[in-house]
């Protein structure tokens, strides 16, 4: 007999078929689960968050869960390949923002995957200016745009980093139609690239985060690296849950000064635009709904026990558990809002 | 103080263990320090940054040093950097002075290692401080300089530069990464392969393929020659070595270490150039150049001090500019990225504990190397007799683990390993050069971003000349390296044309 | 003069700029190599014939063949027991054994013992180390 790849594959899949009924009958998470995440960094917020959740879940359910930082494209591929519940995914708003901004490799998650429960928020998304900048507030920036001054904002295009920028343009449009043209993007990459763009005077405003940039806001004004927050995009209700001591040498009350309603970037002239980076599960669409239910129940019990919240807060995450159905509705609404913002600024330009 | 918290028994054990494994790898002909690091890389994933580096730096120091064992005992360089060690080491062992030669080599290696480490400690932070002021423009020029230097020092400048550009070209396959500031579109991807090639080829599988798999394929091509049986190894009497051989050799040792360190600092130039330069200089300045090649300890010292001088030197551009100094440090870049740390001008300033831990690990590794090899050299000498048919399959398997686990489980990375294993074999046959290819492959994506962003920000090609005086200096250096290499190749040609 | 050096890069197509430049450079360098080394290139056929004549074809091609087989089987086998790394273990044992035997010159039974032992011990040890101790994903 010729041992080709095909015959072996056939043999292997036959074995897999035989094993199938057992897995199907159990209707719950298998004993060894791989949790892929949309980031390739094992030091980043997605990884930290996912490992907190994975630890809690594996302890609660008595199974093994490995977090693998394979990155968005590979994570979606891995999820596509497996409907047995052996592969799960955790990612954040980038998963649908990438799709809204038309980035390669991002499909509509609400159509192609099952959106699962949310678990936490990273409240840190922020915009900063140099300490000696002529713009000391969002109002200064929007006024400058209105007066025809070009304001350059360093962002990483195509997702979480761009949405606040889109909101700025939108606010400028609401305030003085046409002035959004004066808010221009400087497309950069990582956080250090954005910082460098500011220090090289290639950008007037940069996207950053409370966690990564707070240290620079503590520098004296004559230091070339000194920065200052102008806007924190989080909802006030989110930020209020942060530890009172805040981050670094900036207290929660100080942080609140930069967030809505104190700092207002309007959505439509009445409401403020806000953005919270929420982490949630994504599942293969063909995965047994019983598994989704099992995860929902387990997480409900974990969050009721209250221990996970402490771990999340210790890493400056805001606990944010919503079971699958609520999470799906909430995220769909959120996407609707952002879709409109992005449409408004692109049709009028 | 945080630094002392890092120095745990595990940390020390990893350095010593790494050094030991490195020496073993170095001692086996056909296996290199780079391969040792490549194969052991997956071990570091769960060790954390400092502990992982402790292991890798131990492997690096050990691997470079271990090469002298087969060079002296069998006349076969264990690693390319010990080619010149065979010139005088092997004749010595044939004269029955094997153990003496080994010990001379070990002492010289130690001196070379320590001197280059001092240079690293003093030089890297200063260079990094300076490089912090570099913008996209200067960073792009630095890469251009690295490419021309490495082309200039290749056997053929044209083929060297071609290999470098080929490396860049292949590194650009796939998406123009958004997280680097790109627009997320793909290019150079053949139709139908988007599913796999969207993200391009991952760095570490490429390196493991080029250095691990390719080396084994080359051995397989040659029929995996049997190892050497114990009786071909001539150690000689252990009593004949004494430190008095080093009398009057201080200048030689310091000069050779200095040359090694300097060559290490030049990007992309491996250990063979370091030891060859050190050796030929020692010969030029020696009072008895005629005895070189017939078992002259002076030549042995120059060679070994030179190739170990490389270790510290090669880390200078890595830690201050983010540009690897040789192929082994290229793998270290991978180890850093794995831990989420970007190496570049900000590295030392932002991670002083890691920096101190690295220096400390290098010191310990050198001491461990010396102690181990000096006192247990008879046992290490037996390593050259380990059968390859036992060793190679394990190495192949470790390469697979390394490639698969590097990005947390992507099967295409394993196929990348095979593709570049075959490619590495082919490159040698085509007389292209691996080292410039690697440097091009590593620096390609950054070169692109710096180049494009410079133009996006300034919109004018002249910015590359007018940005700052640093840019001008870099252009002078680039021109100098090109002119220098042309002159060097002329000289080489006339030298080969004249009958010796 | 100033206008000649002016460049505007359209972000939408910026992914093509650098590859094009590098492609042109490669073509130019390739051409230069072709011209300066035309004699060597003309004799490339002989060079490759020599390479293949000297090659140990069984060991070289055998290694490649076994490796391709090994890589192809790992994932399907591993999929039967997801996320346990068993695909790696089950495929590695025969792979290490067969490559070991392939590389051997003297295949008398007594001499194969170390190879068999390695093939059993090494993959198992590595598998245990990576899945249990380091908690990493293997196929």
TrEMBL record, chain A:
It comes from Tranquillimonas alkanivorans. Residues 1-25 form the signal peptide. Keywords: Receptor, Signal. The keyword NAD does not apply. This is Tripartite-type tricarboxylate transporter, receptor component TctC. The keyword Signal applies. Gene3D superfamilies: Bordetella uptake gene, domain 1 (3.40.190.150), Periplasmic binding protein-like II (3.40.190.10).
UniProtKB/TrEMBL annotation, chain B:
This is Putative tricarboxylic transport membrane protein. The keyword Membrane applies. The chain crosses the membrane at residues 12-41, 53-76, 101-124, 136-153, 159-178, 199-217, 259-279, 354-377, 389-406, 412-428, 435-452, 464-488. Keywords: Membrane, Transmembrane, Transmembrane helix. It comes from Tranquillimonas alkanivorans. PANTHER family: TRICARBOXYLIC TRANSPORT PROTEIN. Residues 12-439 form the DUF112 domain. InterPro entries: DUF112_TM.
TrEMBL record, chain C:
Residues 17-139 form the DUF1468 domain. InterPro entries: DUF1468 (IPR009936). This is Tripartite tricarboxylate transporter TctB family protein. The chain crosses the membrane at residues 16-37, 58-78, 84-103, 115-136. Keywords: Membrane, Transmembrane, Transmembrane helix.
């Amino acid at each position: 007999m010729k041992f080709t790849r095909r015959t072996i594959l056939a043999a292997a899949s036959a074995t897999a078929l035989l094993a199938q009924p057992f897995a199907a009958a159990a209707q719950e998470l298998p004993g060894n689960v791989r949790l892929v995440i949309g980031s390739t960094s094992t030091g980043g917020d997605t990884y930290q968050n996912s490992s907190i959740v994975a630890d809690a879940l594996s302890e609660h359910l008595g199974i093994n869960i490995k977090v693998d930082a394979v990155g968005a494209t590979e994570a979606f591929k891995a999820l596509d390949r497996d409907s047995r519940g052996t592969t799960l995914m955790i990612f954040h708003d980038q998963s649908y923002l990438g799709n809204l901004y038309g980035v390669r490799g991002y499909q509509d998650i609400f159509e192609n995957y099952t959106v699962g429960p949310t678990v936490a928020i990273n409240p840190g998304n922020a915009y900063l200016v140099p300490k000696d900048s002529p713009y000391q507030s969002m109002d200064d920036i929007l006024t400058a745009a209105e007066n025809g001054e070009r304001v350059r904002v360093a962002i990483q295009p195509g997702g979480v980093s761009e949405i606040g920028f889109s909101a700025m343009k939108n606010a400028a449009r609401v305030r003085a139609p046409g002035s959004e043209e004066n808010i221009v993007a400087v497309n950069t990459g990582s956080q250090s690239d954005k910082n460098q763009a500011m220090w090289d005077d290639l950008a007037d405003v940069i996207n950053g985060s409370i966690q990564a940039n707070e240290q620079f806001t503590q520098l004296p004004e004559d230091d070339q690296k000194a920065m200052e927050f102008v806007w924190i995009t989080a909802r006030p209700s989110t930020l209020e849950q942060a530890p009172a001591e805040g981050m670094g040498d900036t207290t929660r009350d100080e942080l609140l000064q930069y967030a809505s309603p104190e700092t207002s970037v309007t959505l439509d002239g009445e409401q403020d635009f806000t953005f919270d980076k929420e982490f949630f599960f994504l599942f293969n669409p063909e995965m047994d709904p019983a598994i989704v239910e099992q995860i929902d129940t387990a997480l409900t019990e974990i969050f009721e026990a209250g221990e996970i919240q402490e771990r999340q807060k210790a890493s400056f995450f805001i606990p944010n558990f919503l079971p699958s159905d609520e999470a799906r509705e909430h995220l769909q609404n959120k996407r609707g809002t952002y879709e409109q913002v992005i449409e408004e600024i692109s049709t009028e330009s | 103080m945080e630094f002392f918290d890092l120095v745990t028994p595990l940390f020390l054990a990893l350095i010593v263990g790494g050094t030991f494994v490195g020496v073993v790898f170095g001692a086996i002909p056909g296996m290199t320090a780079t391969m040792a690091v490549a194969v052991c890389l997956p071990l570091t994933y769960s060790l954390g940054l400092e502990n992982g580096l402790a292991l890798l730096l131990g492997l690096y120091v050990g691997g470079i040093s271990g090469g002298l064992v087969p060079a002296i005992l069998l006349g076969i360089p264990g690693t390319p950097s010990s080619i010149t060690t065979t010139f005088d080491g092997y004749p010595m062992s044939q004269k029955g002075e094997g153990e003496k030669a080994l010990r001379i080599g070990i002492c010289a290696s130690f001196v070379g290692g320590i001197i280059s480490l001092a240079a690293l400690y003093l030089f890297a932070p200063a260079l990094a401080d300076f490089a912090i002021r570099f913008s996209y423009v200067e960073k792009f020029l630095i890469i251009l300089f690295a490419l021309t230097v490495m082309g200039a020092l290749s056997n053929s400048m044209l083929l060297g530069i071609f290999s470098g550009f080929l490396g860049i070209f292949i590194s650009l396959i796939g998406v123009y990464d958004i997280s680097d500031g790109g627009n997320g579109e793909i290019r150079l991807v053949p139709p139908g392969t988007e599913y796999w090639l969207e993200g391009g080829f991952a760095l570490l599988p490429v390196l493991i393929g080029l250095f691990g798999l390719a080396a084994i394929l080359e051995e397989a091509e040659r029929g995996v020659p049997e190892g050497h049986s114990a009786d071909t190894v001539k150690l000689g009497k252990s009593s004949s070595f004494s430190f008095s051989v080093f009398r009057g050799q201080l200048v030689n040792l310091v000069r050779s270490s200095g040359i090694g360190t300097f060559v290490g600092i030049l990007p992309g130039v491996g250990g063979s150039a370091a030891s060859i330069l050190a050796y030929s200089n020692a010969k030029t300045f020696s009072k008895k150049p005629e005895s070189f090649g017939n078992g002259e300890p002076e030549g042995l010292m120059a060679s070994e001090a030179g190739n170990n001088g490389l270790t510290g030197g090669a880390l200078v551009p890595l830690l201050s500019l983010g540009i690897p100094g040789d192929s082994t440090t290229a793998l270290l870049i991978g180890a850093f990225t794995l831990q989420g740390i970007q190496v570049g001008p900000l590295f030392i300033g932002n991670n002083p504990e890691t920096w101190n831990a690295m220096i400390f690990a290098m010191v310990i590794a050198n001491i461990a190397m010396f102690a181990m090899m000096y006192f247990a050299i008879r046992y290490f000498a037996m390593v050259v007799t380990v059968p390859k048919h036992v060793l190679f399959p394990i190495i192949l398997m470790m390469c697979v683990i390394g490639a698969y686990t590097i990005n947390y489980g992507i099967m295409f990375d394993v196929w990348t390993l095979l593709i570049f294993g075959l490619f590495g074999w082919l490159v040698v046959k085509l007389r292209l050069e691996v080292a410039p290819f690697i440097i091009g492959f590593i620096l390609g994506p950054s070169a692109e971003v710096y180049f494009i962003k410079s133009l996006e920000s300034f919109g004018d090609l002249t910015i590359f000349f007018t940005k700052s005086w640093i840019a001008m200096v870099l252009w002078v250096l680039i021109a100098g390296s090109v002119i220098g290499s042309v002159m060097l190749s002329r000289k080489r040609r006339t030298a080969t044309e004249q009958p010796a | 003069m100033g206008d000649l050096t002016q460049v505007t890069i359209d972000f939408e197509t910026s992914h093509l700029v650098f590859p094009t430049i590098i492609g042109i450079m490669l073509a130019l360098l390739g051409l230069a190599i072709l011209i300066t080394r035309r004699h060597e290139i003309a004799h490339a056929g002989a060079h490759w014939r020599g390479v293949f004549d000297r090659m140990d074809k069984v060991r070289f091609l055998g290694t490649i063949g076994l490796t391709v087989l090994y890589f192809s089987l790992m994932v399907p086998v591993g999929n039967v027991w997801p996320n346990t790394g068993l695909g790696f273990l089950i495929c590695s044992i025969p792979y290490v054994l067969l490559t070991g035997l392939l590389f051997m010159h003297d295949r008398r039974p007594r001499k194969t013992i170390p190879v068999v032992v390695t093939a059993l011990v090494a993959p198992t040890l590595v598998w245990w180390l990576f899945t249990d101790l380091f908690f990493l994903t293997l196929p």
